[in-house]
Structure formats: C-alpha cells, structure tokens
C-alpha cells in the first residue's frame, strides 16, 4: 500500500484500488471525490491497457498521466476562451 499526500490542511484518508493496487490517498477532498478520481484513473488505465495489452504498468501509468494532462489542458483552454467571451460581452 502506498500513501500520497494531496494537501496539508485538514485531511481525509481514503483507501482506493487503482489497476489492482491499493493506495491510501490523503487530502482535503471528500472521500467520495477521492474515490471518483481513483475510479476515473482506473477506468482510463483499463481503457489504454485494453488497446495496448503489451504495455508494462509503468508505461501504462505514464500514458494515463499524459492523457489526463492533455484532457486538462483542452478543458482549461476552453474555459479561458469562454471567460474571454464573457468579458467581451461585459465591456
């Protein structure tokens, strides 16, 4: 079991399973939120693994992280564009 600290404020400890490994996640987020994040990571790892069954777990984890950051950057760009449009409408 591995522990990862997400924050230094009041902390919740939540045990999750990601790709057949158990982790203790420590953070200020609710246990429900932490379980949701873990489930999404697990789902993405299983999806990538099903398309690339020869990948070892380290490469699978890196590809999962790359996919997650790519999705994050796309959503961040969309949000920035929407905020810019809203600001133009206010002016």
TrEMBL record:
Key words of the record: Cell cycle, Cell division, Cytoplasm, Septation
Superkingdom: Bacteria
Stored Pfam families: ZapA
Compartment(s): Cytoplasm
Major subcellular site: cytoplasm
Any Gene Ontology biological process: septin ring assembly
SUPFAM superfamilies: Cell division protein ZapA-like (SSF102829)
The protein's assembly and partners: Homodimer. Interacts with FtsZ.
Name of the protein in its database record: Cell division protein ZapA
Species per Swiss-Prot/TrEMBL record: Neobacillus massiliamazoniensis
Source organism phylogeny: Bacteria, Bacillati, Bacillota, Bacilli, Bacillales
